[in-house]
Specification:
12 strands, D-Maltodextrin-Binding Protein, domain 2, LysR_subst-bd, single chain, 306 residues, DNA-binding, transcription, Arc Repressor Mutant, subunit A, LysR family transcriptional regulator, 3 domains, 11 helices, 45% helix, alpha/beta, five-stranded mixed sheet, transcription regulation
């Protein structure tokens, strides 16, 4: 579905006459959208827009290309409509396994968005560490797994992968809150709130902290990101979580989120996977498309942060 997403981006630029206005409609950044357009023009070997002070205008080549993509979008919508009519989408169930780090915001947001369009579809959501999540997938207990840094398995197929950064989380009045990027050594001056032992984020944090050779002051360990956020308020402690592309609930909790220097902590892969050679229900396939789209948005957000 990547090509359809790109088609929708180009169509939005044509309709709005501006990358900036199209980006606002699409809820992406203008710079990321412009990079997508430049990549497409480079691939086609020609410009499809003339850029003017007052906006964007299609070239002759652009008019041909936009006619093509609009036929493709219309045909895709027609086919989808027929599939929905044949298969129903009035009822059904989607079962997913998700990593704990994706359970607080990312997954609920996806499910809410999907059920707004398909209220008859119910969900079974299993929150599990990556090893158990893979077992759920292999035993047909779930249709999809959205997990962090899982081990490779020959029977599991990755639908989408995005590498995300580690964020330090702290109270808005914390002494380090004004720094745009932090080093782990900066954080060691304060008590840390760490993910519980066995969680993927904790394993990677331990590996990154070990070479620093310094004592770590631990304020608490928890497998709940909601508990972590609550403990961070009005304190000098620092917690950690992965950036998942969506707006973090900073206003609600009076917290700020700062990326850790990539030299000290390598980006972590978030993967949406299904069992190889297993056919998905229409509902599960539709939900997987939404997950892939949101993970593409996560990649765009990451590029913008860089």
């Amino acid at each position: 579905m990547r090509h359809l997403r790109l088609f929708q981006y180009i169509d939005a630029i044509v309709r709005e006459g501006s990358v900036r206005r199209a980006a606002e409609k699409l809820y992406v950044t203008a710079s990321a959208l412009d990079r997508r357009l430049q990549d497409l023009e480079e691939e086609l070997g020609t410009r499809i827009f003339e850029r003017h002070a007052r906006g964007m205008r299609l070239t002759s080549a652009g008019e041909i290309y936009v006619n093509y993509i609009r036929r493709h979008i219309a045909e895709s919508q027609r086919v989808q409509s027929e599939i929905d009519r044949l298969q129903g989408m009035q009822q059904g169930q989607v079962a997913i396994a998700v990593s704990p780090a994706l359970a607080s915001n990312f997954t609920p947001s996806l499910v809410r968005k999907f059920r707004e369009q398909h209220p008859g579809i119910s969900f079974v959501i299993k929150v599990a560490r990556h090893g158990l999540a893979l077992q759920y997938l292999l035993s047909f207990d779930v249709d999809l797994a959205i997990i962090i840094a899982p081990p490779k398995h020959p029977d599991v197929f990755d639908l989408a992968v995005v590498n995300q950064s580690l964020l330090a989380v702290m109270d808005k009045d914390h002494p380090l809150s004004s720094s745009p990027v932090l080093r782990l050594s900066d954080c060691l001056q304060y008590p840390l709130l760490l993910p519980s032992t066995g969680l993927t984020t904790r394993e990677m944090l331990d590996a990154a902290l070990r070479p620093l050779g310094r004592d770590v002051k631990i304020g608490a360990e928890t497998n709940s990101y909601e508990v972590m956020r609550g403990l961070l308020q009005d304190s000098d402690q620092i917690g950690f979580m992965l950036y998942t592309g969506e707006q973090q609930p900073a206003d609600k909790h009076s917290l700020v989120y700062r990326p850790i220097n990539a030299r000290e902590f390598r980006p972590v892969p978030i993967i949406c996977a299904q069992l190889r050679n297993r056919g998905l229900s229409v509902a599960a396939a539709q939900f997987s498309n939404l997950v892939i789209q949101e993970m593409e948005n996560m990649q765009i957000a990451k590029e913008e942060l860089a």
